[in-house]
Specification:
The structure is a homodimer. By secondary structure, the first copy, chain A, is α/β, with parallel strands linked by helices. Helices cover 44% and strands 24% of the residues of chain A. Chain A has a domain at 13-31 and 73-97 and 126-133. In chain A, strand 1 (2-7), helix 1 and strand 2 form a beta-alpha-beta unit. In chain A, helix 3 runs parallel beside helix 4. Chain A is globular and about 40 Å long. The A-B interface holds A 19, 26-27, 100, 102-103, 109-111, 115-116, 119-121, 123, 125-130 and B 19, 26-27, 100, 102-103, 109-111, 115-116, 119-121, 123, 125-130. Strand 5 (126-130) of chain A pairs antiparallel with strand 5 of chain B, so a sheet runs across the interface.
Chain lengths: 133, 133
């Protein structure tokens, strides 16, 4: 049994990770955290260093949480939605967790195209979470 | 602890109900099933009869599932998204489950406005499920 989380270092990405850890515990499932970047071409020395630091923090947090886990750091040309869906399918995931940006109090936000693709195209149920507050 | 399900008598609505029952069991939570109709004005004798039959089927299924439950059949002027969100908030729901129509193999479907509103405006995580196949 596997829960897949789409992680990005933003408040909604952290919220997705928190809930993903809870759901993996609840289900006694393994957690696969997908840290997906849009394009490898943007990767210079500075962003590579930041990505390494991010990965180290992520691994520490997962270790502390005590769930069986696996981190996939993807830096490649595909869209993040495709990465997440293909990893979920390869792992026969029972659940995907993603973070959504909450509607702003003034403007009317619609869901981003990546979130819509994951919600509509994933074979398993998708749990969408927002950042607190 | 409460799980709220948005129910409609369609394949994706049935899928949402199935998953809602599973999630309520997993969490030891009460299930609130919201059977929401867009407008009370359409309600004539025939649709009222169909709604009663639907409600009877729904109650039987929930009884068989053995989860603590409550069915709210709403026929009023609000949009279904508002009904679902306000019931989730009134019950301090920890999860909302909704059904999504899957993208057709030919055309590129986007998410309906009701689903988008629930996903973005609900305070708790929202689990989105598609019908099988």
């Amino acid at each position: 049994m596997t829960v897949v989380v789409g992680y990005v270092p933003t408040p909604e990405g952290e919220a997705a990770l928190d809930i993903g850890i809870e759901e993996a515990r609840l289900r006694g499932a393994r957690l696969v955290v997908v840290d997906s970047h849009r394009s490898g071409e943007e990767l210079d020395a500075r962003t590579a260093g930041a990505a390494d630091a991010e990965l180290a923090r992520l691994r520490e947090r997962l270790q502390d949480a005590g769930v069986e886990h696996d981190v996939r750091q993807l830096v490649r040309g595909f869209e993040p939605a495709e990465d997440l869906i293909s990893i979920a399918e390869a792992n026969e995931a029972e659940l995907i967790v993603i973070g959504l940006r909450r509607r702003s109090p003034v403007g009317k936000l619609i869901l981003g195209s990546n979130a819509q693709r994951i919600l509509l195209d994933a074979r398993c149920p998708v749990l969408a979470v927002k950042a607190e507050g």
